[in-house]
Structures are given as structure tokens and as C-alpha cells.
Fold this protein.
Amino acid sequence: MEVSSSTIIKVSQKQVVAWFDSIGQKPNRYQFATHGGVVIISGRLDRPGAIFETREQFFGLTMRLQFQITQVEPDKFTFQLIKPLGRGCILGQFLLKGLGAQETRLTLRIFVAKQESFLTGVLQILFFASPLRWAIRRQIRAEVEFIRQAVEKK
């Protein structure tokens, strides 16, 4: 089970990757109404193991979220939420698919890890059968749209 949002960006996949890479040098570039930007805690965002923090609004409340990059590939960036819920329970991915010379599909997926435990069972219920799912979907739609506009403007 997952929450996802996709958009078509009218630039090459290489240009989208370059924009993501630029966040490491200018993390304040990744900021919009309900997302307070990225703060790099350790490492580099283009390397597994990097830790970063965001401040995001859900239902008008600002939450401080901490993530760790777990995988970086030319068409996929994978991360896990490490605070406040604990490492490895909630995962996310930015997926890129080149559709032509000047078109790229960007998808942001958020999902609960496929671990068999009481905690992941509870998280699946909270995550997918509550107003939280709506709030997360709204946030990632805004995030994907923000990225599209930022990359196309660059």
C-alpha cells in the first residue's frame, strides 16, 4: 500500500537529476508553502547514508521529519523516515522515467515497509485508513508540482 503522485516535467531526465543534485549545494531551494526546506544533517544528498531534515505542515501543524538516503540510482532516489517514528518503517522514493528528449515523468511514492511486525501493521492502518493518508497525499502532490515548476523554470 502506498500514496503516490506523478507529473510530467518538460525537460530531460538528466536535467531533473541535475536539479535534485543542486539541492545539496542550495538546500533552501526546496521550499514551498507547506514544506520548510531541507537541512542537511550529515553526508551528501547524492550518497546513501546522508541524513536530512524537513519541516512540513499537516493539518496546519508543523512537523520536524528526519530522513536518511538509502539508495541513489540514475532513475531512483530512495529514503527512509528515521524520526519521529523510527528507522525503516516508512519509506519513500522519487522515481524518474525519461519519456523523450525533453520529457520526464516524476513520481513520488510514500509507503510502509514490508516488515511483519505489530508496529508496521499499526502504521499501515494509520497511514492508509485515516485522514493522515489524505494529508500525505496532499503534501506529496504539492511537492511534485513544486519540483515540476522549479525544474522547468531553471
